[in-house]
Amino acid sequence: MASAVPSFPEAARVVYDYASNLLACHPRTERLALDSTYGCILAQPVRADRDMPAFQRSTRDGFAVRAAEASAHKWLQVAGSIRAGEPPAGPLPTASAWEIMTGAAVPEGADAVAMLEHVEQDGKKVRLIKGRTLDPGENVVPAAAEAHAGEELIPTGTRLGPSQIAAAATCGYAHLEVFVRPRVAILTTGDELVPVDTTPGSSQIRNSNASMLAALVAQNGGEPWILPAAKDNTAALGSALRKGIEADMLLISGGVSAGKFDLVEPVLASLGAHFHFTGVRIQPGKPLVFGEIPRAKSPLAFFGLPGNPISSAATFLLFGSAVLRALAGNHLLAPLFSAAQLSRDAKGKPNLTRFIPAAFKSDPLSCHLPEVAPVPWQGSGDLAAFARANCFIFVPEGIDRIPAGDIARILPI
Ligand SMILES: Nc1nc2c(c(=O)[nH]1)N[C@H]1C(S)=C(S)[C@@H](COP(=O)(O)OP(=O)(O)OC[C@H]3O[C@@H](n4cnc5c(N)ncnc54)[C@H](O)[C@@H]3O)O[C@H]1N2
Ligand code: MOO
Q1: Beta bridge mates, 300
Q2: Distances (CA, A) of 183 to 25, 112, 179
Q3: pLDDT tens per residue, range 349-394
Q4: Quick check: 340 and 373 in contact, CB under 8 A?
Q5: Ligand 2 close to Cβ of residue 190 (< 6 A)
Q6: Is the ipTM beyond the 0.95 threshold?
Q7: What's the confidence (pLDDT) of residue 95?
Q8: How far apart are CA 265 and CA 304, in angstroms?
Q9: Of 407, 20, 381, 28, nearest to 212 (Cα)?
Q10: Is 224's C-beta closer than 6 angstroms to any atom of ligand 1?
Q11: Model confidence over 279-337: pLDDT tens digits?
C-alpha cells in the first residue's frame, strides 16, 4: 500500500472493488418460509409462474364496453355481471355493456371499462355521460402486460423488502432460497471500557460501540457476534483477534490512531495481515484501517474502525457495509446516498471529505425535498448529539462550505 493517505473516492474505490470481487464467492444458502424472509438476500431468481395478469383485468368498478360504441353515447344493454374471481364471461354482444368489478376478467369482445361514476343508468341500460369518451384499453390491463410466464421478476442478490415479498407471494413462492447471513465479529478495544450493565468509574465509559456496531451489522444483513472487549495490550488483543478469525468478517473498534496504546495495527500485522489502507482523508474517521488476514479457507476482511463512536458509525456505513453486503450476497454494494435541502450551512475542512452528523426531516404536506441541518456536536465522541442525528451530510474535499438553501447529498443512518 502506498504511504499517501487516500481520498474518500480513492478509498471507496478500493473497498467497492474488493467487495465486487467477493460477490463471485457465493455464500451458503438456506430455505426459509416466505414470511420469514424480510431483509434477507435472494439466492434464487423469482420468476412469474404464469402470465401477469393471467387474464385481461379490469382496474375499475363499472361496465366493460367497446370503447367506440360507448364513446358514441348510445344506450347499451347490460348483458351480464362479473365479479373478481369469477371465470371470464362473454363474449360481449354488440351494443352492450357488461357490469364488472375491479380485479375481474374483462369479457371477450370488450376493450375498455367505463367507470361507474362516468355512466348514467336506466334500468338495464347504461350510457357514457356527456363530455366523457373512452379510449380502447382504458381501465384494462391486458393479459401478460406486467410479465410473461417464466420471466424473471427479481434477480438473485436482491434484498427482500415488502414489494419483493409481495411479488414472490403472487407467484406462489411459499418458501425462498436465501443467503445465510454472514457472521461479523465485533471486537471493541480499550482499557476504559466497562459493560453496559455496570456503573463506570470516574474515568471509565460504557462500551457503546459494541451495541451500535451490532445494530449496524444487523441493519446491513449480517449476524453480529460480539466478542468480549479487549484490553489495550498486545497479548489481550492478540488472543481476542485469534478468536475473531473464525468469523466471516471482523470489525475492530478503537486503537487505530497514533497513541502509544493504539496497538491494533501492529497486532494485526503480527497475524500476517495485509493492509489495503491505514487512513482515509475523511472527517470523522481518518484513522480507518482496511485489510485482510490470510486464512486456510479464504482471507478474512477486517476494518479497524476509529474508537470514537461517530467515527466508527460513519466508517462502517461508508466502507464496512459494502464488504458486509457483498459477503451477504447483496448485489447493491455501495451505500445509498440521498439528497436534502440544507436549512443551515454545512462547513467543509481543508484536505478532508466531511460527513457531518445531521438530522433530516420532511413535511408530508410539502412536495419539496427533505430539510437537513447539522446537529450541534462536540466532536466524534458526542453520543448525545449522535442520538439526535439520522444522517450524515456529505461535504466533498475541496468544498469550503455548502450554504443553507443548497441541495446536499446525505447518507441516512
Ligand atoms: N495524536 C493524534 N491523536 C488522535 C488522532 C491523530 O491523528 N493523532 N486521531 C484522532 C481521531 S480522528 C480519532 S477518530 C481517534 C481514534 O482513536 P482510536 O481508534 O485509536 O480509538 P481510541 O483512542 O481507542 O478511542 C477514541 C475515543 O473513543 C472512545 N471509545 C473507544 N472505544 C469505545 C467503545 N467501544 N465505546 C464507546 N467509546 C469508545 C475512547 O474512549 C476515546 O474517547 O483518535 C484521535 N486522536
Ligand atoms: O476524525 Mo476522528 O474520526 O473525528 O474523531
Answers
A1: 293
A2: 16, 54, 12
A3: 999 999 999 999 998 898 899 999 999 999 999 999 999 999 999 9
A4: no
A5: no
A6: yes
A7: 97
A8: 8
A9: 381
A10: no
A11: 999 999 999 999 999 999 899 999 999 999 999 999 999 999 999 999 999 999 999 99
Helix, strand, coil shares of the chain, percent, nearest 5, are: 20, 30, 45
- Number of residues that make up the chain: 413
- Identify the sign of the CA torsion 11, 14, 20, 26: negative
The cell 487505530 sits on which residue?
Answer: 256
| Single pTM value for the model | 0.93
Phi-psi region of 39 (alpha: psi -120 to 50; beta: other; left: phi over 0): left
- Cα of 271 vs centre of ligand 1, distance in Å, is 23
Report whether residue 308 contacts ligand 1, using a CB cutoff of 6 Å: yes
| pLDDT higher than threshold 50 for residue 261 | yes
Q: 286 CA distance to ligand 2 centroid (A)?
A: 6
Q: Supply 359's cell numbers.
A: 438530522
In this prediction, residue 204 carries a pLDDT of: 96
Residue 384 grid coordinates: 448525545
| DSSP structural state of residue 274 | E
Q: Is 208 in the pocket of ligand 1 (CB under 6 A)?
A: yes
* Half-sphere exposure at residue 245, Cβ-oriented, CA atoms within 13 angstroms: 19
Give 20 Cα–ligand 2 centroid separation in angstroms: 28
pLDDT at 73: 96
CA end-to-end distance (rounded Å), the chain: 30
Cβ–ligand 2 contact at 286 (below 6 Å): yes
Atom 1, ligand 2: which residue's CA is nearest?
A: 284
Cα(43)–Cα(27) distance, integer angstroms: 9
Q: In what order do the strands lie in the sheet with 96-100?
A: 112-115, 62-65, 96-100, 76-82, 125-128, 119-122
Ligand with an atom nearest the CA of residue 284: 2
Q: Is residue 160 very low, low, confident or very high in pLDDT (cuts 50, 70, 90)?
A: very high
| C-beta 257 within 6 A of ligand 1 | yes
